[in-house]
Amino acid sequence: MGRGNSPRGLEDLTTPLTGGELRVLQRLPTMMTISEIAAAMFISFNTVEVRLKHLYEKLEVKNRRQAVHRARHWGLLADSGEEQDA
């Protein structure tokens, strides 16, 4: 309620999500670990951590659950009832 500075929609993002950030975001609902995401994407653990940090900052959230919720709300991810290709 008192968060007047939080984004109201995708168009309010100051910096758009990168392709790498979007690919990490797509794996968040699967509850894969950071290590599993890194292995699946053929990138380092640290790269996944950095992308998560940037995602959380850009989406103005504090954790994975909030990121998934906001991404679904903005249409970046399918609703929980729909499956996405990983």
Describe this structure in words.
With 86 residues, this protein is an all-alpha fold. The protein has a domain at 18-73: Arc Repressor Mutant, subunit A (Orthogonal Bundle). It is built from four helices and no strands. The chain has helices at residues 19-27, 34-41, 45-59, 64-73. α1 (19-27) packs across α3 and α2 (34-41) crosses α3. The radius of gyration is 13 Å and the shape is globular. The mean pLDDT is 86.
What's the quick description here?
The chain has 86 residues and is mainly α.
- So how many helices? 4
CATH superfamily of the domain at 18-73: Winged helix-like DNA-binding domain superfamily/Winged helix DNA-binding domain
Low-confidence stretches: none
> What gap, in angstroms, lies between the N and C termini?
34 Å
Output the structural class. Answer: mainly alpha
What is the number of E strands? 0
As a percent range, the share of helical residues equals 40-55%
Classified by CATH, the class of the domain at 18-73 is: Mainly Alpha
Compute the CA-based radius of gyration: 13 Å
Major sheet attributes: none
Beta-strand percent range: under 5%
Kindly report the CATH topology of the domain at 18-73.
Arc Repressor Mutant, subunit A
In CATH terms, what is the architecture of the domain at 18-73?
Orthogonal Bundle
Mean pLDDT: 86
Shape: globular
Secondary-structure element string: HHHH
